[in-house]
Amino acid sequence: MPITATSCRLLKKIRDEKFDEDRIDSYNLALLTGPRDLQVMVYDPQNLQALWLEDYVFPSAHDNDGWLASLQELFDQHPFISAGFWKKIIIGVKTTVFVHHPESLFSEADAATCLGLSAAIHADEEVHTFHTPAHNMVTSFALPVSVKNWFTSAYPGNRPCFVHQSCALIEGTLQESPGYPDAPLYIYVDRFRLHILAADRSGLRYYNQFAIQNFNDYIRYIMLVMHTLHIDQRTSRVIMWGYVGKNSPHYQEFYKYIRTITYGNRPEFLRYGYVFDEVQEHQYFDVLNMARLPVG
Fold it and tell me: Domain map of the chain by residue range?
């Protein structure tokens, strides 16, 4: 059945010819969502083949009720994402209440207390944690109870694993960083939000995300982080992923202020058919890297 939802707009759809709906039980489903949008990625974990990619934007209502209404409408009309027999289901959430802990200093019992020191946890939210043993890191994040319950009820026989968007960005950056011995600054341009990361041979040095109201905010936050980390803006490279097209007006504006900015590469641990050539290599870095995360 084609997508006919009026409140969700499909921006991109990639289907590899190897995708087979009859083999869903051998595929992993990765969904990355927040109140504004949803990305869908299906991959074969056996041979790490990317098979399906979709990108939807939601209408202007950005509260939890609007978020859930958009998800419900999309799930009702999508041909397969509501299927319950995926091998694994990974739900990545774009929320602003999160904190990263060194695993050696983390206590599950104190997760909510530590998270509450960095941001306010609302009454309708609950705290989730995600462990990344390879990097000795634990991420605590707040998730609206209504959203969590909706996904849990959507997949009653196959409990999803919930992760934070930053987990995928950090994992992808740490895997990419050995290829950049000059330890550049990394940025991910999301819709109305900027993610900034720094990493070197010792691991992650910095991660944060910033709300964007106008283009000058991008430059202001990048320069602020460079100054904080003592990174020379004239000589240090900046690697960029995200929703900025090559040679677009936004990229030209970035280049005016940051002459050393270049685009990052697509995650190389996944295999891609020729249909993925429709996607620029620096795009969808977050949802593609969800396939790296240790889930179950």
Answer: 9-96+125-171+269-292, 178-263
Residue 284 contacts residue 40 (beta carbons within 8 Å): no
pLDDT value at residue 109: 87
Q: What's the rounded Cα separation, in Å, for the pair 190 and 291?
A: 19
pLDDT tens digits, one per residue of 242-271: 999 888 888 888 888 888 999 999 999 999
Rounded to the nearest 10 degrees, the angle between the axes of helix 64-77 and helix 145-154 is 10
Helix (H, G, I), strand (E, B) or coil at 106: coil
DSSP state of 143: E
Structure tokens at 172: 């992808």
pLDDT at 14: 98
Of the candidates 149, 145, 108, 148, the residue with the CA atom closest to the CA atom of residue 125? 145
DSSP H or E segment with residue 129:
strand 125-132
For the stretch 37-54, pLDDT in tens is 999 999 999 999 999 999
9-96+125-171+269-292 shares its CATH topology with 178-263: yes
**What's 178-263's CATH class?**
alpha beta
CATH number of 9-96+125-171+269-292: 3.30.420.250
How far is 289 from 90, CA to CA, in rounded Å?
A: 12
The mean pLDDT value for 214-236 works out to 92
In this prediction the pTM is: 0.94
C-alpha separations of 136 from 90, 93, 109 in Å = 21, 21, 18
137-144/98-102 β-pairing: antiparallel
Helical segments of 231-283, H only: 249-257
